[in-house]
User: Fold this.
Amino acid sequence: MNPSIRKPLIAGNWKMYKTIGETEEFFTQLEPLVNGVNHCEMVIAPPFTALRRASEVAAPLGVGISAQDLYWETEGAWTGEVSAKMICDAGCRYSIIGHSERRQFFSESDRSVNRKIKAAHGAGLEAIVCVGELLAEREAGQTEKVLEKQLTGGLAALTEPDFSRIIIAYEPVWAIGTGRTATPEIAQEAHRFIRSRLGQLISPGAAERVRVLYGGSVKPDNIAGLMAQPDIDGALVGGASLQAKSFAAIVNFQGR
Ligand code: PEP
Assistant:
């Protein structure tokens, strides 16, 4: 983390968990635990059905709301899809794009990631773009090749100003929901590679300003070691973001 250039960001991805009532309860419990936090940005990504209510109850706490996905068309006969404009209308400032669960189970490709980023930007949203390798790819020594492909395809034809509204989340797929976190050193190595690749795609100066989050079994007891790495600017947290107490403990990684 280098807070003089990049403000740390801790984001929670709730996946398909929590009703509107459970969302309200979470933010009621979170309020005293994050009162006065300004060392980092806080974001929660609830399911679509809870976005509107979450944006209302999270605003006084200074927590931004993110969607977990979007569709790139603005409107039309696309049954089941939700546009970037609708997500903004529900009070969101961010959208996660290209999460590994979307890539694995819903055929998300680098091309669709790229279209979704452009749609998000068109509606004024910041994009939290997920990249990361499978276990077999890591074991075959393909990690950098996979990241290279995801970054080049997903971020194709974006301009330097676009990168001020891009947040990258490095999420090795083998670490998501498995309890198996990348060591801080392994994560740092991937983050350094991502930043150097961004430097080639945009400019070294702009790459220094892009936040690169780590995701994969982040918990209160491993966040400090990850945040001590120079290229890790925050975390995208799944399971541990579902309880206010553990999410707040991750937000307060420097101690309170
Ligand atoms: C995620 O869903 O992006 C994630 C990192 O999940 P978990 O923290 O549960 O591994």
